[in-house]
Each structure stands twice: as structure tokens, then as C-alpha cells.
């Protein structure tokens, strides 16, 4: 049976992974803008990730103020603005779409296959979404920070299906495996496939990836599933 819809993760799947070295370098830039030690800022980031991904800390400015307080300081408006600008700039650096991402999504669209994206993310991704060349091909982008849900919550997978007008059993889900997304997708009835790419080596993950199910090594491999 060919899938009626294909749903993709974003970071590490449609985009290439950022290494822990890159992230540490850029965390230092934001920490400097906040005026806090990098190690304290990184600890606050790790601790707050589930809440940040669900939008529970407010908008970007509110999040920056929360992170500063978690590091023991209160920041003024100018410092907050500088930290927000640094955060946006560093997050932009992480969005390097895979060369095969746009052609794959375009080919799926040409075949009439609906496309969804489910991403655990903070405010920067949805704010920039319309500037990405893949955006016109995605029928249902679902961002955790906007919907208040985070993978592997079944509700976020069911939401993208609802927006696409399909049943979970009709969908293939493709992701790098972080956030326990693959078992989460399987649990609601989707067929889950893990993308395994060279840039995943050394990439930051928030949850250990223990997936032993089906894998693919190139996004274009999904076209063989949707060729009927």
C-alpha cells in the first residue's frame, strides 16, 4: 500500500544537523549578549527545552528574560533585544536544507501526495518558515511552539493528520529519531522511517535514539514509496 501522505520532521531531516560544536559556539554568542556565563546559559537551555518547545515560556523576549533569570540576572530591554537578535541569527545558521529536500517535496507534490511537517521547535522556525523554498510544498506545517504539543505526544501526530485530512494509517513519517518521534508516530498507526545521514554523527540530540526499525539514507527514497 502506498502512503496517502508523507510527514517529515524538520531539524536533522529536511535540514542538515547542527553539530554540538556549532551549537556551543552559538550559545556562547547569546550568553554574551545576556551577560551570563555560557555554561549557565546552556544548562538553562537544557532544563527548559520541553517548556520552550511547547511555548510555555512565552514569546522570544519572554523566553530570553526567563533564561536570564535562570542564570541569576534580570535584563533590561536593550539587553533583551540584543539577546533576541543573537538568538535569531544563530538559529538561522542551523537551517541548512538538505540539497534533496526541495526536489523530494516537489516530486511528492507533483504526484498529488499531501505533505506535512511536525517539528519540535522554538519561535524562530515558524517566524522564518515562509522564507524557506520548501514551504510552498508543505500542506500542513505543525510547530510545537505554536500548538503547545511536543513529540512524542500522540496529539501532535493526530493534529497533522487532521490538518491533512488523512488517517494515521495512511501516512509515512520520516525523521532522524530525536524526541522519540519514531515510536510516537508508530504508536498512532503511522509507518515510521528513520533518516540516517552522515551529518547525524556528532549532532546534538535531546533524547537517546534507540530505533531499530526501518531506515533510509536519502530523502529521495520516499519517492519509491509514493510512486504508485
Automatic annotation (TrEMBL):
InterPro entries for the chain: HAD-like_sf (IPR036412), HAD-SF_hydro_IA (IPR006439), HAD_sf (IPR023214)
Organism domain of life: Bacteria
Coiled-coil boundaries: none
Record bears the keyword Cell wall biogenesis/degradation: no
The entry's keywords: Hydrolase
UniProt entry tagged with the keyword Hydrolase: yes
GO MF annotations in UniProt: hydrolase activity
Database matches in NCBIfam families: HAD-SF-IA-v1, HAD-SF-IA-v3
Protein name according to UniProt: Hydrolase of the HAD superfamily
The organism of origin for this protein: Actinopolymorpha pittospori
Amino acid at each position: 500500500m502506498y502512503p496517502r501522505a508523507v510527514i517529515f520532521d524538520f531539524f536533522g531531516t529536511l535540514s542538515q544537523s547542527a553539530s554540538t560544536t556549532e551549537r556551543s559556539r552559538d550559545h556562547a554568542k547569546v550568553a554574551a549578549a545576556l551577560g551570563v556565563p555560557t555554561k549557565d546559559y546552556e544548562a538553562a537551555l537544557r532544563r527548559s527545552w520541553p517548556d520552550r518547545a511547547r511555548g510555555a515560556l512565552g514569546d522570544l523576549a519572554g523566553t530570553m528574560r526567563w533564561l536570564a533569570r535562570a542564570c541569576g540576572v534580570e535584563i533590561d530591554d536593550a539587553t533583551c533585544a540584543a539577546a533576541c537578535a543573537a538568538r535569531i541569527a544563530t538559529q538561522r545558521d542551523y537551517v541548512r536544507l538538505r540539497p534533496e529536500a526541495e526536489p523530494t517535496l516537489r516530486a511528492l507534490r507533483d504526484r498529488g501526495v499531501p505533505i506535512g511537517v511536525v517539528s519540535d521547535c522554538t519561535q524562530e522556525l515558524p517566524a522564518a518558515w515562509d522564507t524557506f523554498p520548501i514551504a510552498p510544498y508543505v500542506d500542513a506545517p505543525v510547530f510545537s511552539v505554536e500548538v503547545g504539543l511536543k513529540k512524542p505526544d500522540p496529539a501532535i501526530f493526530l493534529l497533522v493528520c487532521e490538518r491533512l485530512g488523512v488517517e494515521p494509517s495512511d501516512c509515512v513519517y520520516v525523521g532522524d529519531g530525536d524526541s522519540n518521534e519514531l515510536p510516537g508516530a508508530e504508536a498512532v498507526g503511522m509507518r515510521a522511517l528513520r533518516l540516517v545521514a552522515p551529518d547525524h554523527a556528532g549532532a546534538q540530540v535531546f533524547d537517546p535514539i534507540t530505533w531499530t526499525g526501518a531506515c533510509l539514507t536519502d530523502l529521495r527514497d520516499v519517492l519509491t514509496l509514493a510512486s504508485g
